[in-house]
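Our consortium's second objective concerns turning raw sequence data into structural hypotheses that experimental partners can test. To show how far this objective has progressed, the report includes one record in full. It was chosen at random from the queue rather than selected for favorable results. The single chain below, 325 residues long, was entered without modification.
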Amino acid sequence: MIIDCQSHVFPRAYADLLTRNTSALRTNRVDSGIYLINYGDVQRFRLDLDSYSAERKLRDMDASGVDMSVISVNIPTPDMLDPDLASEGARICNDAVAELCARYPDRFIGLASLPLNDVPVAIAELDRAIDNLGLRGVFLPSRVEGAPLDAPQFEAFYAHVAARGVPLVLHPTVPVWGEAVKEHSMIPMMGFMVDTSFAMLRLILGGVMERHRTLEVLHPHVGGVLPYLMGRVLEQTEVKGRGRDHISQSPRETYKRVYLDLVSPDPLAIRYAYDFAGADRLLFGSDHPWVSIDAILDIVKALPVPATDKDKMLQGNAIKLFRID
């Protein structure tokens, strides 16, 4: 069995709702099923709903031998919308994901999108998504309305998530510092990876992971740049004593609790993730439809590691993290 832990959908109703937004995030429908999503003047993405269709996803899964995908609605997240649209957007996303999971129960399990700009409403929507819709985790953007993930207003949310045993799946969004790297397509090329690394490091250094020791987090794209820079983080925190105001243990020890997905079309990066985190903390993912499933799956299959480790990466860890029966 092969489980893809990062695969995206995009409901038409959510795309249409984006066109009603009046803040810096502006969306225009240019053709049937084609939208342009503008993050101010920093980044523009072309959204083609056909590429996100369940039919295409299932066809590509079958062609690659993937049995099940963990699906989520891709960025932009509902918290980026006008306040009067955020909760509506989250409901649209979660209802659409739940409908796909109900239609194809052996092929899809889903993650919830939340209006995290309003924590009480987000908690209520999380409970609805888990209890009523059967979703299995939370799609967590790397920032919320510019606020870092360790900001005090999110403390009640993390406490609730930890108590419920629901995994958080980090995902990049256009960074607040995107203006500095918007040329040459450097935001999706590298900005996303750095942004999620800052987000994960803030969850560690801000004490969120220590205060909520049962919190389960999946850090995407082989941990962005954080695994490669962990030695520098430790030299700063453990030798120089910096950045320790909210933590009592080594960031490396805390990070050992975090899962990494293998969304990187690079054998060296995936091998480094294996050596760094170990087989028990790695999950295969593709980022479909942004990336070809085989571009990553072929690398994982070819890794010169024990078959038992490969089995954990391809299915075992996902079954454990997302409570797949």
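The partners drew two points from this record. The CA atoms of residues 234 and 240 lie 9 Å apart. The radius of gyration is 19 Å. Both points have been shared with the crystallography group to help prioritize constructs.
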